[in-house]
Design goal:
Helix content: 25-40%
Distance between the termini: 71 Å
Bound molecules: iron/sulfur cluster, FE2/S2 (inorganic) cluster
Structural class: alpha+beta
Number of helices: 10
Largest sheet: 5 strands, mixed
Number of strands: 7
Order of helices and strands: EEHEEHEEEHHHHHHHH
Strand order of the largest sheet: 2-1-5-3-4
Oligomer: single chain
Strand content: 5-15%
Radius of gyration: 20 Å
Shape: elongated
């Protein structure tokens, strides 16, 4: 093998298809997204993939790289290339494939809506800013999950999503947890009702794949554990 050559196998097709091999030059500091972009521009303009910001903010560039879900704009080839110098790129798992490396995100974001993953100020929001001390327990819990970029890496890594396509999944549940801790929000009970259903937080078996792979170092596993505690605490209050 030429040391300056990078061999890349890329999934072509939808649910059915095959890998296609490309060879491009290795470059210092090259990212996986650089590789895909070069192949699309120089070798095959019909290759489909998705990106926007290239700096780890938009969440659109995630793929499976040598077997693991990753954001590709912030993943250097040198970190992930295998011992034989190959890169294998596939679309995210647990999503329908639109074409090649581009996946359908609609169901993923519909689940955010289903989990009430939006701020609800109620019919009469207070006019002034809420004062939420940075050291408060609620603020710290919300801050721990707030930097999610919606990349789908955790969802792709979760085997409960693979078994149960209706499971809300780590990203939607993490978002719900940030809102359960938002002291301004007015639909805490409705949100806890939804996330405590059979496709909600109780379905998580805590094996941590989401937390292991999240590129933003968020721990959806802990957010989901927080939801389980909140649901339990609320039911004990109701029973008493
Ligand atoms: S900890 Fe829960 S949500 Fe995260 S990957 Fe495992 S089962 Fe899925
Ligand atoms: S929790 Fe992490 S892995 Fe999941 S969508 Fe958000 S940023 Fe991506
Ligand atoms: S292109 Fe925006 S996060 Fe990678």
């Amino acid at each position: 093998m030429n040391a300056a050559t990078l061999n890349v196998d890329i999934w072509r097709g939808t649910e059915t298809g095959q890998f296609e091999a490309f060879a491009i030059s290795r470059r210092e500091h090259q990212t996986v997204l650089d590789v895909v972009t070069e192949i699309q521009r120089e070798h095959d303009p019909t290759l489909s993939y998705r990106f926007a910001c290239r700096v780890g903010m938009c969440g659109s560039c995630a793929m499976v790289v040598n077997g693991r879900p990753r954001w590709t704009c912030r993943t250097r080839v040198a970190e992930v290339v295998d011992a034989s110098g190959r890169l294998k790129l596939e679309p995210l798992r647990n999503f329908a494939v639109v074409k090649d490396l581009a996946v359908e995100m609609t169901q993923f974001f519909d689940k955010w809506k289903e989990a009430r993953g939006f701020f609800e100020p109620g019919p009469a929001p207070q006019a002034d800013f809420a004062v939420v001390p940075p050291v408060s327990r609620e603020r710290q819990a919300a801050d721990a999950g707030i930097e999610c970029i919606g990349c789908g890496v955790c969802y792709s890594a979760c085997d409960v999503v693979a078994w149960d396509p209706d499971y809300l999944g780590p990203a939607a549940l993490n978002r719900a947890w940030t809102l359960v801790n938002d002291v301004r929000d007015q639909i805490r009970d409705a949100r806890l009702n939804v996330v405590s259903g059979s496709d909600g937080c109780q379905a998580c078996h805590t094996h941590m794949s989401c937390t292991t792979f999240c590129p933003k170092a968020i721990a959806p596993t802990y957010s989901i554990a927080g939801l389980k505690r909140a649901v339990l605490a609320r039911s004990l209050r109701v029973v008493r």
